[in-house]
Amino acid sequence: MAKSDEVYMSALEGKSIPILTLDNKWHQLFTQTEMTPEIEQLADQLNALVERDGKIRSETKDIKKLKKKLLGEIVPLRDKANKSSDSAAIEKEIQDRTRLINDCNDRLDSHQDELLDLSREIYDVDYKLMIETMKVCYETLHENTDYIKTMDEWISKVRVELKKNVIRLQETEMENYNLYSYMHQIFGPEVIEIFDLKYDPDRRHPIRRPLAGDESEYVE
Q1: For the residues 33-53, what does the mean pLDDT come to?
Q2: Which of 48, 56, 80, 125 has the largest CB neighbor count within 10 A?
């Protein structure tokens, strides 16, 4: 027995386990992770056992109803036989019903034994299915946790680099703005036009200012 199985068994001792394949929430687990072949096989096995258990219980109810009906018929027949001068035919009817009652008792005993066996089998298969389900879910959880950790580290690094680049962008835009302004003031618009420096910083590259508390976003 694996060490993990021993831990699970100790944790589950004395606790009832729901029949997983009858629980819609169990099925919802596999909208988040893949169902392995082992889980599919155990689920099919569990469903077959549960179906058989239901069939036996239904048959048991029918047998008990029949037995009750037969028992109810014997008393009137016995009274009738006691009052009749020719009771042979009635006695045969009583014997037939007695035989059927004994047959019902035998079938009820057999069903009771099978139900006990089914109960153990259902628990065992359900337990194995639960273990496999937990293994798959925890494996997915660990994989997702590793991915989340990796992405969180990447985002943190990118966020730092983004802030640096935003600052560089703002500094470069300010440099362009200042260069154009100084040139325009020193040389005048006529000279600027001669060199075809039709640069309007307010239109082409407006200085952008970061939003409060987040340098990764800015406004013009």
Answers
A1: 95
A2: 125
Q: Which of 32, 15, 42, 31 is nearest to 131 (CA)?
A: 42
Angle at 106 between CA 105 and CA 110, to 5 degrees: 115
Backbone angles phi, psi at 216, to 5 degrees: -80, -10
Location of structure tokens 């016995």: 78
For the chain, report the end-to-end CA distance as a whole number of angstroms.
67
Length reported for the chain:
220
Q: What average pLDDT does this structure show over 61-72?
A: 94
Q: How far apart are CA 56 and CA 95, in angstroms?
A: 27
Beta-carbon count within 10 A of 46 CB: 21
pTM assigned to the model:
0.67
210 and 166 Cβ atoms separated by less than 8 Å? yes
Tens digits of per-residue pLDDT, 127-144? 899 989 988 888 899 999
Question: The dihedral of CA 203, 207, 212, 216: what is its sign?
Answer: positive
